[in-house]
Amino acid sequence: MPLERTQESGVRSQNRGPAVHLDKLVKRFGDFVAVDNVSIDVAQGEIFGFLGPNGAGKSTTIRILCGLLAPTSGSATVGGFDVSTQPEDIKKNIGYMSQKFSLYDDLTVQENIEFFGGIYGVSDEKLPERRDYVLKMAGLEGKRSALTRELSGGWKQRLALGCAILHEPPILFLDEPTSGVDPIARRNFWHLIYELSGAGHTVFVTTHYMDEAEYCHRVALMYGGRVIALGSPAELKTSLGAGHLLNLESSNLLGAMAALENKPGILDVAVFGGGLHVKVDDPGAAIPAIYKILQDAGIHVMTLDSITPSMEDVFVGLIEKEEEKKAA
Hints:
Distance between the termini: 41 Å
Mean pLDDT: 88
Number of helices: 11
Helix content: 25-40%
CATH superfamily of the largest domain: P-loop containing nucleotide triphosphate hydrolases
Structural class: alpha/beta
Strand content: 25-35%
Number of domains: 2
Oligomer: single chain
Order of helices and strands: EEEHEEHEHHHEHEHEEHEHEEHEH
Low-confidence stretches: 1-13
Shape: globular
CATH architecture of the largest domain: 3-Layer(aba) Sandwich
Strand order of the largest sheet: 6-7-8-3-9-10
Radius of gyration: 23 Å
């Protein structure tokens, strides 16, 4: 999917600065620090990805940004509104969509749209126009009379996104929005996200699908309440530090892993799909050495090529570094 932005915007901005601004944000629950000194700026119209393992602090941060939870210290603004003093203004100017979609299964598609239009305060005069826009945007024009419970996960996902933007919020928070839907539905959903970004919406999205991080303009990786990496996917791929990555497919995955670990020139070995990703300091020297090591172990090499790190490699590599710091 190409990464393109347009300058035209149909979204009314409440703020000429960053759409979302966090400055040394902290949230404690007793002695537990859920969000630890987080500072981030998200530009207007940006698709910003928020990644991290369970318990990293992503959901707590989003609850603060949505005006649902007060920070312990530090500050944050969303659309120019302060999370501590103007939470109700924030709620009026954002759209929110969770992985559970928050739809009413016993209502039709159109009834859900009209219900949420009332919740978001869309006027009776404006609602027909917004309803028709959402139906067209989500590709649901032929399903307006269908009961929501009869929709597939992908169609429910589109409907939930449509309901979240009925009131034309400049900023969207999407919390694991593609969880539980098939790959085609996920890809189609990201096309909708790109359209919204191109129209000027800022999209703040959490995901546990590493391939989806590639679609974001920038990504923040949280771990232990802290942001441990921040940048574009391309920038983060260079953050693995010294070393080059090889993709290895062999006749014995676990045997190859055991044979290569801790060998000179081999920096790391990790299972990736049906093969191994092997991090080396010098591919020119490492590739023939790997062939010999595995040949001596009676393991046949089917593929051994240099590759560009994926976001999953970045994620695993950075988390491993943090774990090593904790163990030291």
